[in-house]
Each structure stands twice: as structure tokens, then as C-alpha cells.
Amino acid sequence: MTKRTGHLRLGAFLYPAGHHIAAWRHPEAQADAGVNFRHYVRLAQAAEAAKFDLLFLADGAGTRGDNVDFLSRTAHSYVAQFEPITLLSALAAVTDHVGLVATASTSFNEPYHIARKFASLDHISGGRAGWNLVTSSNEHEAKNFNRDSHFDHAERYERAIEFAEVVGGLWDSWEDDAFLRDKAQGRFFDPARRHVLNHKGRFFQVRGPLNVARAPQGHPVVVQAGSSEAGKELATRTAEVIFTAQQTLDDAVAFYADVKGRLARYGRHPDDLKIMPGVFPIVGRSESEAKEKFEQLQALVDPKVGLALVSGLTGGFDLSGYPLDGPIPELPETNASKSRQVLTLELARRENLTIRQLYLRVAGARGHWQLVGTPAQIVDELEAWFVNGGADGFNVMPPLLPAGLDDFIELVIPELRRRGLFRSEYEGRTLRENLGLKRPANRHAAHGAAAHAVA
Amino acid sequence: MTKRTGHLRLGAFLYPAGHHIAAWRHPEAQADAGVNFRHYVRLAQAAEAAKFDLLFLADGAGTRGDNVDFLSRTAHSYVAQFEPITLLSALAAVTDHVGLVATASTSFNEPYHIARKFASLDHISGGRAGWNLVTSSNEHEAKNFNRDSHFDHAERYERAIEFAEVVGGLWDSWEDDAFLRDKAQGRFFDPARRHVLNHKGRFFQVRGPLNVARAPQGHPVVVQAGSSEAGKELATRTAEVIFTAQQTLDDAVAFYADVKGRLARYGRHPDDLKIMPGVFPIVGRSESEAKEKFEQLQALVDPKVGLALVSGLTGGFDLSGYPLDGPIPELPETNASKSRQVLTLELARRENLTIRQLYLRVAGARGHWQLVGTPAQIVDELEAWFVNGGADGFNVMPPLLPAGLDDFIELVIPELRRRGLFRSEYEGRTLRENLGLKRPANRHAAHGAAAHAVA
């Protein structure tokens, strides 16, 4: 494989006090981060000053899990924090360049609302909106939406495919030049450039048109995070960015080749989909400083929290009856997120970890790639993944916020720039331009390419 | 009745280019207002500098009506504009005091999403969010949400009552002091101060808890706009502000007394609900200047638009077969918004209007109270309604934006202040404080009053 040159892409994955499970207990932590708007303004403006491509917000429309003792000991699990679309809309008003990617589930939303809110955010932000399409792995969300249990794994992906089709169709309700705003003739729009969707499918019946003008980006950027077989297939059809959890270069390269190789089937080019694995970096000016920072966070993990966290990542199986310093037992397959479960168990078996060692391993990055070291050590790894076909960029998951983001900006980004791996100025005006993604033509437009990302 | 003293409340009801149906055609109009974020920032900051209580945004999750020729000649009817919750979230970041009231329908939303988004906006804005609860009178919204037709009038109000109960319950998921954020003990929240809703009703099954901390205002302010019998009953149970269309002082006084008189039945005090009729003011330095401004807008109304508008306000009946300069024919009762239909027909019969005269009368305020005159003339009317028990304040609907809002601020507000009718500084930090509404106690709190606005 030819070694790649050029710039990699960076996302700043913001999670209230930081991604480490015990981050909120850290002396420097903003413990009220989940409802502290000033905290997010500071993070967003710092990421933008450093030229990050995008801010990324995860989501759950319901607390993850039902173990109240566990929940009460964490600030994770979507216990109580801002809703992402309202938060990113507010951050749009205090930033000018950085992309704004919010997660929203296809299982517990209506496509008209999702198409509309993201198109509106794209207008508000001048072309910086992105939708991270998830199907939700959290059983408890269903109970907030008139259901006793979640859709099964296959059904929720079928629903997601149709949901994305409807959203893409609604985003093309209006051609780019539909709005004449001709005051003299009294014609606000050209009826010939307005398109009624009239979708009738298995899950949705949506007439349209969307009542928002076509987005500055054509379509907001569609991000996808599933890494299961169904998730990869959905991403290949609908996504323009994949956020994925990969632990090793070999796995990352295999995943990258697999997904990029599927694109031709849908008439898409490998450049039409950017792959950005998550990375959880703990950076120090020396290796020992980095390790100390990490140990300081690890020491704050309550064993009750660690145990419950591993249960959650392995499909809800209760491990509290097993010895903490013994091996992970064989577990039955569940309806929870398959890829997350497989990754967690593979990690434990590959490294022969005890339950305690495993919970300390996943406490931080929760299954994502963890790097602890100096700027040079961290950039060596990022560069290796980038140049060897494992990643187009990375979604950075700071252990502690704002300190972990500040460290990355102060120490890692200059090293990336020194090696010619990261921009010093934004290339474009929109998220799509900065990511190097084409603006999709409207499917109804008389002239222009038929290609569009959301079929 | 004792004449009232004190301050009245003012809302700035923002509609893209202005409330007059032909506003977008005016030479000064911002014709792209529906997708121009800078336009809204300017309006919001002007309203805040003038000490308005709140910004108010209407909504429809779908274009209103299906007459494409009509639609293409207007910028009204929710053809293509920002979605209100995203827009107000963005405006929250560039304002500090003004309230932010967005409309959202109980017919085509899920209560968990609505509770969450408004609670999130309340945190982002530091206690300035309000929810205008509507049941939707627009048949076309249904078709964007898996239905062939709307719920019937009675069913949508039954649904709205249950929806508001669920939202109120979710807003009390967490007691105000539930979040300990005790780093040393590792307790993020107190499990005893977290409350699972477990709602199972006719329309909704929602477990909870909400995954947003209790809002700074306790509950975001609940606004309601229905004026039918079912609408008044819903408002009496659930609302803290009523936005209503009244045409005469007598009608306004009767409506005010009727609604305030119903509150005791739900253990509520008359001050717990503020009544703010809509007013469409065209203000000039002289009476003739005001009339000229109005005529300039009226001259821009295309007869095709006027005719279709009257059809829409009278329940969708097609009037195009009747002579423009003849009387309004007898119309059958429909499933559309009853109060709007009754008001429109009463206006036509009271003043013996032709179809053309009627469309010119409703083209501006679309059934709301229209005042054309000098600042003194306009304030005479507002004062009469306020001191005689017809209104606690007004929702101002500028004919043209930004010019009509600027006129109101420059000419009318100083006259209101001269008469001691309007504030010069905000009294409180939250919308609720500025409106003079109590902060609701959490229904689960061990100490504190049991009173809360959303039962």
C-alpha cells in the first residue's frame, strides 16, 4: 500500500467532565459540566482556535442502565446533561468555523423532525452541521418512548436505512435555487423547484416537503458509528464519516479496507467516506508525567463503578459474583451493541486480563484506543495509523475536560503540524469543505451530478 | 372592577420578514429572513435592549396548506424557515435577559423529547426558556408523521392534557438539590432525590427519569394559545401565559375574566396565569404616516394570496367562486381551529365586510388585534386593555421586521414608560421572575409548597 501524505482530520468528542469514567472526581474537573454552558463555550472556542474539524456529541434519550447505585457514582451514562442539538445550536452562535456533529437515534425519533433540526442547524451555522446517525444500543431509551423493549438488532438497522432515505429525500425538498424572493413579481419560490417526497415505506409515511430551505452544505454531513456487520453496511450506504472503535493498527487497517471496499457497490468513491477512529490520549511532557496523569484518574475509579461498567460493555451481564482478580467468564450473546461486546471480550482475552484489570482498561476510553505518552509517542501512533491506511483522521476523546483538550492542543497539535499532518488554517467555509467531502447535488436538479451521499 | 396599576408584559413575536402577509415584498424587507441568522440576532438583541419579556416563535412541522400557487406567492405558512428550538438555542448564546418561547406541538412530538429540549434550553439560557404548547391546527403536519389525517379536535386536546402531565412529571425527575457532585465520596447524585415517573396512560408510556437536571426555572414557562372551550380548559390546567387573539376590549375582558375565573378549580391563583393578547401595531409619528405605512403593505397583497388566506382562516373553504366584492357566504363547520374560524367570521359579519375587505383586514394580523396610529393612540388602547382587565400584557406582532420592531421600540415603548406602564430594567434573572410567576416546587420535595403549574 502506498504511504499516504496530506492532512488528517480531527474531531473533538466532548463529554461533560471528560471521557474517563472518574473524570468528574478529578480536582481540576468541572463537576457541573453537564449543565454548564460556559464550560462548553470554552471547549468549543479552544477547539476552533486549534482548527479541529468538528465538535462531536454523543447522545442517549434516556439514562443508560438502571443500576441506581452505579449511576449515582458517575457523571456518565447520560444521567443529566444538555441535549446535543440545543447545545450545538447555541455553540453555533459563538463559533465561526468548527463543525457541529450531534448524535440522534433513528429508533426513537421521527425523520421529519431530524431532517428539519439538522437543516436548521446547518443554516444557523452557515454550513457546519453533522448528524451522527445511531440506532441506539440502550434498552432503557425504548421505555421513554411507548415501548417495553428495544427493536431487535436487525429491525433497528432496517428502520435506520429507511429513516436515512426519508431524511435524505426531505433534504432535497427544495432545489438550491428554488427561492426566487422576487419582490416585484410577488414570487417567493418557483413551484417547479419544490419537490413533495410522498414516502410510504415499511416504517414511515412522510409526505414532505421539508419546511426548511436546502442546507448550505446541500445535506448536513452524515456520520455513523456502528461497527457491526449491519452497522458497516448502513454506513457504506448512508455515511460520510465513520466514527469507530479500533484497538490495534491491524484491526484498523482491516476495518478501513473492508468499509472502503464496499463503497463501489453504491456508486461511491473511497474519498466519499472518511474513517475516524476514536482515540483517548493522555499526554505528558515526559512519559512519566503522562503515566502519572493516567494513574491519578485510575485511582479515582470506585470498584463498584468499574464492575458495573464492564457489565454494561459486555451486554448487561452481572459480574459481581465473580472474583475481581479472576478471569472474565464465558458470556451469552445479547441484544446489546454486538460490536462493543465483541471488542471488549477480545481485549480481555488477548491480554489475559482479570475483571479488575479489564475495568481499569475500559474505564477511560470505554473500548476506544488509549494512548499514554509524550507528544512524539502519541503522534508516532497517529501517524502510523494515518499513513498505513488505518484512518483518515481521529475523533479525540480527552480524558478530562478542559485540561485534556488543552493538553492535546498545546502539545500534540504542534507536533502534528511539524510533521505536516495537520492544518494551520481552515481550508473551507463549511464542515464538508474542511473534511474534503463533495457537496451533494440535489437529486431533482435538472443540471448537475446525480451523486448524493444519502440515497 | 378596580383599575390596575403596575407594569404590563411584552412579547416580541418574531416572524421572518414580519407578520403582514406581504411583508417580504416590502422594499425594506429582509426577504431571506427565514434562513438569515444575523437577522434574528439583530431582532433578539434589539428586543432585549428594549427590555421585552420574551421572544415568541410560532411553529408548524409542515407547510400550512397545499395550494402551491398560493404558497409560492408568500413567505408565510411555514414554507421554509428555521426550526424554532434550534433558533432560540442559538439566540440564547447572544442574549442575557430576554425570554425564549418556542412553539411545539403535542400532536406530533414525544413528551420525552419536548421535556428534554426545553429543560436543556432553560439550562443553556440560565432560566429563560418557555414552551408554547399547541395541538396543531394544520392538517398537513399529520402527513409528515405517519398519518393520513390529523387527530380530531377532542382527541388532540385529550392527548395534549396527558402530554403536559408527562412533561411536567419529567421536569420533576430530579429535585433541585439532587446533584451532590461530591468528589471525595464519589457520589454524583443522591439516589433518594431522583424520581422515576413510570407514566402509563391512554396515549403515552414514559418511564423516565429525564436525563437533564431540574431546570433553573423549576419548569420552563408553559405558554398556551388555544381560545376554544377545550383550549381554555387546557390552558387553565397547564399554562402560565396565554397568547390569545382578541379583537375588542369587551371580548378581551370577557375572555380574561372567563379564564382567570377557572383557575381556582385547579388550586391556582389568578396571578399564576398571565394573559397576553396579540397586537399588530403600525405606528407612525403622525396618524397619516401610520396609515401610509399600512397602505404601502396592503397594496402589496396579491388578490390570489388574499383569497387563499381567507379560505385558510375559515376552515379551508374555497371562496374563489364567489365575487370578491360580495359578502362572505355561509360556511359549514370544519375540523380546523374552531376559535380562529369563529373570530374571522364574526369580524366579517360585525363590520359587514366583502371578501376583498376581509382579506385586506386579516392579511396583516391574521385575526389578531390591529392598531394603526401614533404612539399616543396605540398606548391609549394598550393601556385601556391593561387597566380594565383585558390583558396582563401583549404579544407584539410587528408588521415588518426589523422596521416594525424598531418603530415599536423607538416610539411606543418610551410612551409606555412615560405612563409608568413598562419597565426600564429587568426585575429578575429568569423569564419566570420577569413575568412575575412563582418558581414551581418539585412535587417530590420533602419541604416546600406543593403548588406547581403543570399538574
TrEMBL record, chains A, B:
<dbReference type="InterPro" id="IPR051260">
    <property type="entry name" value="Diverse_substr_monoxygenases"/>
</dbReference>
<feature type="domain" description="Luciferase-like">
    <location>
        <begin position="22"/>
        <end position="392"/>
    </location>
</feature>
<feature type="binding site">
    <location>
        <position position="153"/>
    </location>
    <ligand>
        <name>FMN</name>
    </ligand>
</feature>
<feature type="binding site">
    <location>
        <position position="227"/>
    </location>
    <ligand>
        <name>FMN</name>
    </ligand>
</feature>
<dbReference type="GO" id="GO:0016705">
    <property type="term" value="F:oxidoreductase activity, acting on paired donors, with incorporation or reduction of molecular oxygen"/>
</dbReference>
<dbReference type="GO" id="GO:0004497">
    <property type="term" value="F:monooxygenase activity"/>
</dbReference>
<keyword id="KW-0288">FMN</keyword>
<feature type="binding site">
    <location>
        <position position="103"/>
    </location>
    <ligand>
        <name>FMN</name>
    </ligand>
</feature>
<dbReference type="Pfam" id="PF00296">
    <property type="entry name" value="Bac_luciferase"/>
</dbReference>
<dbReference type="InterPro" id="IPR016215">
    <property type="entry name" value="NTA_MOA"/>
</dbReference>
<feature type="binding site">
    <location>
        <position position="157"/>
    </location>
    <ligand>
        <name>FMN</name>
    </ligand>
</feature>
<keyword id="KW-0560">Oxidoreductase</keyword>
<protein>
    <submittedName>
        <fullName>FMN-dependent oxidoreductase, nitrilotriacetate monooxygenase family</fullName>
    </submittedName>
</protein>
<keyword id="KW-0285">Flavoprotein</keyword>
<dbReference type="InterPro" id="IPR036661">
    <property type="entry name" value="Luciferase-like_sf"/>
</dbReference>
<feature type="binding site">
    <location>
        <position position="228"/>
    </location>
    <ligand>
        <name>FMN</name>
    </ligand>
</feature>
<comment type="similarity">
    <text>Belongs to the NtaA/SnaA/DszA monooxygenase family.</text>
</comment>
<feature type="binding site">
    <location>
        <position position="59"/>
    </location>
    <ligand>
        <name>FMN</name>
    </ligand>
</feature>
<keyword id="KW-0503">Monooxygenase</keyword>
<dbReference type="InterPro" id="IPR011251">
    <property type="entry name" value="Luciferase-like_dom"/>
</dbReference>
